[in-house]
Design a protein that fits this description.
22% strand
Length: 389
Amino acid sequence: MTDRTGLKNRGCSHADVDERREAAERFAGTSLERISKYCFKAEDAEHNIENMIGATQVPLGFAGPVTIHGEYANGEFLVPMATTEGALVASVSRGMSVISASGGARTKVFGDCMTRAPVLRVRDLEHSCQVLQWLDAHEGEVIESAEATTRHGKVRRIERFPTGRALYLRFSYETGDAMGMNMATIATEAACRLIEEETGAVLVSVSGNMCSDKKASAINMIEGRGKTVVAEARIPRGVVESKLHASVEAVVETNVRKNLVGSSMSGMMGGNAHAANMAAALYIATGQDPAQVVGSSLALTDCEQVDGDLYISVRMPAVEVGTVGGGTGLPTQSEALDMIGCRGAGKARKLAEIVAATVLAGELSTLAAQAAGQLGSAHAELGRGRKRR
């Protein structure tokens, strides 16, 4: 396939990339010299990009180390974060230092299912009921047709949502160490073809938005999508006061009035200070799909005073990450995954726990800064206040 420049839009050899970039320079009337410089073979990105003309570099730093006591992540970790926001890595590092000084974060994965929810058109309510009855009687065959498309995907449940002349089916898959969106899509299409043949229902779209993929939704917040993870820490009062320069009471009040009441008044789904901020930096660094950061915005941050100490937790219902496939195989992203021991098979849940612990640290630091009235000064010193060339 070619584009308006007459060039192939798929080739990823260095020659293809150089030729396409030169055409783009002529078309746009500008130089793309910096974009032309990157450290990996163009062929390495063949399955990740079309119309490749180079690479955009995002500054990469590390936060930590942070101590994590999880079911899958155990030990101390330096967490790679790619961002252009000054003060973010410093803030997360501060939170990690406080958490580690207090014994570490505890993490747990409570759910692990990727979803795809097709919408089928039925003739009327009676036909919808007939399709549902057939599905009840033949669910095993539907599952078998879906699983025949993949070596790793397993159907865990199929939920039914009939309405008028539409029938939504929400397939939930265990996808191993891949994030699994493509796997779920291919498998669900195969299952729906069988339903079409046997019932006369018509597949309108393999995604009817009840998945819900790359969109904030109540169903994902309640039921989860990808990994559902909880992280917690207990920070002694003395540590809160000496390292965060705030009181336990002030942090708790800030969380209640900001993350709970303020979020509720705005109609927000989730209640957190900036959970997506930490997730985005970690996702970009490790080759995750950046659009899945929207799931991180559903996080719920909770703070309590327990025997004078600060208890803080985050619930992340939609941590959609993988350690194989997608962008995880690109050279720099692979190295970032190696930093936290999360490259390859058997590591996806470990990565999800590290994501949750990183979000916990960022939430703690930011809430304390706001409670102490330090947020603006921190950004002025570490972000906007820096001299720009």
